[in-house]
Every structure is written in structure tokens, then in C-alpha cells.
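Entry
Fold in C-alpha cell form

___
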Amino acid sequence: MNALRLMLRLAWWTLLLLLAALALLIAAWLPFNLQDVAPKTRPAELQLPAARVPDERNAAYAVAGLLAEAGRDPAAAGRTVWAAHRSWSALPPAQRAPAAAGRDAGVNAAMGKTLSAPKGAPLNCDGQRATCDADWLAAGDALARQRAGYGAIGERCDKLIEGAFEFEELLPPGRGVDAPIMPWTPAVDCSRWFRSGAMAALARGRREEALVQLRRADRLHRELWDGARTLIGHMVATRLARNTYNSMAAAAIRDPALAEAMAPWLSAPLDTRAGARRWMVHEANFQRGLVDEVGPSVGAALAMSESPLAPLGTGPGAEVVAWLGSRGIGFHAERTRQRIDEAWMRRIGTLEYVWPAVLAGVQVEQQARRQLGPAGRVKWRNTFGEAVIEASEGALGGYLARHADHELHREATALVLALQRQRVAPAQRAQAARKLPGVSDLLKERMSWSADGNALSVRAWQSEGFGYDPRRDAISFTWP
């Protein structure tokens, strides 16, 4: 009995000590989390630029509506769909959920019975793998039959790219967490239509037809790249560009005469850091818009982060965090906005350097984050706001590596075309590749050849700890 009383007394005192420690912690934490900072002028570099393409000429609407029911005008459907999204996105957050059904009804009415591109192999390559073009060439007849299922989609893709194709990605008026995203599936379908058409034509010996299709694929990814403004838009354009480079190289290897015609397409310099700057400006504005909406729902935002405080965003803790955040306790909206701007200005500043230096800096930051650990990243001041910011801190390296690989892949493709133009024998390819004018030291350092000269591999930046998938991201070329 005495032992039981002693245990109860110890448990009671332990509980009191824990409550006292918690009270002391809260008392120490509160003074640092009550007062927000004064607003200040945003850096001009983070202001969203004015539209580059007049709205009435923007082909993005035709892309958005390209899968509308047969017989409908894709551009008109796309405008109606995007108008519905814009109207819905402009509503206050509390009014969006009740209005979602009306938005969806308007979208469905505008699109009708949507079209879909054919599925399955050989047209759809598993994981967008680098061997897709070889598979297409090997299955030319089956590919041609499957492409017939494109129907109106293929016709619309041809009409789109052969017209005055001026493209600028559509952006919503709001920047909140549920801001609508422009549909990119139609652009992916068009790219596959053009590239598969080139391989189907080559398999049947139709050189000029293949060249027309490759030119369309090349123009598509260029226009998408120039008009992309968001991170998603740039990643789609980057993937389609790299897929097109693979198709161009496969065509030149199959028929060296095509290399002469395609070489000028790759002659102009490409600096993908310009694209990274564009989407960084958009991401900075998106995060600021998120801050404007997150106060009452800071718990939900916290739950989606990788912070050790994430459990507070669910269950009973979510209500406490929401109550605190809505009153500016632990979540300082203006301080968070300024911290977001500082972080993005620092990231944009790193783009003054070449990609090897940029990625080396990213790796140093990633290592520092790993050493610090999750608990070490919890901030004493503006605790919840910093946790929301921290959620995006470690995810950028892979995107930047894709930009660097975009440049590397393009230069490697130009090298393959140059070797084919000169009809270099397999045994001399490795040596000739290092002597050709214009080949960068970086490419020379990262490329390797097989002993017989029939395989070229380039070490991708993504393979150095940035989410590399060899089936999708490899930079490799094979001669028969």
C-alpha cells in the first residue's frame, strides 16, 4: 500500500513538474511570437512581369481546350474553362468549397465529352524512357496503326503548331494553395503525336515527312519553354525538350542526311537559368499568396510540412494552432512574407553562377540540412510561419539539376548530329567528339564512349543525388 502511494505521489509530482516546465516554455516563447514586423517594399525582382503575349493571341487557351469534344473550338472551350477557374479562384477562401460544383459544371459544359489519346505500347513508352524512339522504330507498323486513334487530337495538334503559335502560360488571379493549374496533358499528347509520327515515317523511309514532324516537335517545346511561367510549366517544357532531343538524335542516327537539316535547330545558345528565374519569381508570389490564406488554417499547412511540429497540425492540436495563428501568435504573416522574399532573392542570386557552381551550393545546403536534423530546424521566433517556409526549403535541387541536364542533353544531341553530318566512323567518334569546335569542356568531362564507339553516355547532373531515374533521365545515344 505504501509503495502504491509512493508511486502515485511520484507520478503526481512528475506531472506537476512537466506542467511547470511546459508553462515556463510557453512563457519564454510567447514574447518572441506576439509582435509581427512592419511591412516593407518588396524587391522589384520579385514582381510578376507583365504579360508577354496579348490575351487575344495567346495559344494557351487552345492548348487548354485541345481535348474538348470533337466539333468544338478548342480555343473557345479553353477560354470558357479558364474563365470559370479564374472566377472561382478570385472568391474568398471560405466561399470556394460551396462554389466548386458550379465551377465544375461550367467546365464540363464547355469541354463536353473530352477526347483522349490512345493508351498502351508502343505509343506510350514506360516511364518516358530514353529508348522510346528505338522501340518506335522497331514497331513502325504497329505504331502507325495506333497513331490512327489520335483522330481529332492529332489534327488539332497539327493546326495549332502550324498556325501563329504564340504561347504564354495561363495564371490564376489568386496564389493560394488551391489556385488552378493550367492543363498540360494536351501539350504532352501533341509532343508524343509529333515525335511518334517522325519515327513512324522513318520506319517507312519517308525522310521529308519525318523532318516535318520533328520540326513541329521542336517548335512546340521551344514555344512552351519561352512561355512557361510556373515551376510545373518549366518542368513540362524541359521534359518535352529532352524527349525531342532523343527523337532528333535517333533520326540522325537512322538517317544521317537528316542531321544536316536539324543542326541549325540546336545552333543557338541555351541558358536555362533564365527559365529558373521566371519560375522562382512565380513561386515567391505563390508562397506569399499562401501566407495570405494560411492564418486561419495554419494547422493544415503545418501538417503538410516535414517539421517536427507537423503532428500539431492534426487532431486537437490543430484547433489550438489555428486559434494561435489566426491571432498572429507564432505565425507572423508579414515576417513570413519577408522571409519568403529573402529566401527567393538568395536563390535567384545564385543563378548568376554557372550550373556546376549552383548545384554544388545546393549540395552543401542539403548536407547542412541533414546535419541539422528536423529538430534543429524548428525556429524559436515565428515558429509556425518558419515551419511553413521550411516545407519547401529542401525540394529545389532536383528541379535545378533538370535545368542543367536540359542544357547538357541539348549539347550532347548537337554533338551526335555533328558526328553524323561528318559521317565519322565508329572507331573515330570518341576522338572526333573531343576535337569538334564548340564542344564545351563540361561535356568533354562528363561524356564517355564504349570501346567500339557505338554508344555515348553523358553523366547527368540528376545522377548526383537529385532524384535520378535512368529510364527517364539518362543522356545516352546508341548506334546500331
